[in-house]
Amino acid sequence: MKQPYTISALITGGASGLGLATARHIIELGGCVTLLDVNKNIGNQISKQLGEKTLFIETDVTSEAAVDAALLRATNTFGKINLALNCAGVAPSERVLSKTGLMSTSSFARTIAINLISTFCVCRAAVNVMQHNEPDTEGQRGIIINTASIAAYDGQIGQAAYAASKGGIASMTLPLAREFSRLGIRVVTIAPGLFKTPLFDTLPPNATEALTANIPFPKRAGDPHEFAQLVLHIYHNTMLNGETIRLDGALRM
Ligand SMILES: NC(=O)c1ccc[n+]([C@@H]2O[C@H](COP(=O)([O-])OP(=O)(O)OC[C@H]3O[C@@H](n4cnc5c(N)ncnc54)[C@H](O)[C@@H]3O)[C@@H](O)[C@H]2O)c1
Q1: Is the pLDDT of residue 95 over 80?
Q2: Which of 16, 157, 174, 252 has fewest C-beta within 10 Å?
């Protein structure tokens, strides 16, 4: 028997990679999706492709006012948001002391702002709208899923800012889950290893070959659909809460 899906998801970074794969999966399953991204051209194209159950809102997730407005618009369009997925992110690599000079603190802060502070900003706005959802039979009103990285535990040279931003996402998962539990809102984080997305494709071929060779099994980069499948599993499995789940083929970098 077909399961009745009533997912209304909001996905940041939804115009590309992991966020887009999840949006496609949710639409295939009969849900609706609001995509937030800074990439207006691709966002509009994708929303046309995915059809009427998709809304694209050009949003820079580092702006609290823009995120709050997007959450309100999404809720008014689809009636509710019961899944918020944070995928917007950047992965710069920069040594603190390189041949070209000293890394600036503002460069560090920019990565923290896009990856970590905006994730908090979306959690804040999501819980504000989700608190008004009708609870299900278990009292659940919504699920927030954040995207960290295995760099949260295993950061490489050049990843001080990226690893710190992802470590922050992993660290705030439990306190947020504890706080939102009285509202029936779960918070779970996924820490992906290597996934074949446009972000991954920015790495030089010799770097991607070397990285995939280190993955114990399977010896390949993840398919974004495998990330989407985990999002859907978390959505359906009410016992998953307050945890960061590695999705990495046992890769330790
Ligand atoms: N691909 C991987 O191997 C991998 C591994 C570990 C973690 N991650 C994390 O997964 C998330 C998604 O990565 P991806 O591989 O799909 O990357 P991607 O580059 O394909 O997608 C990221 C999206 O975020 C958007 N974005 C960037 N800054 C934004 C902002 N300020 N406001 C709104 N949107 C913004 C981009 O326009 C882009 O569409 C990121 O947080 C990344 O750090 C990816």
Answers
A1: yes
A2: 157
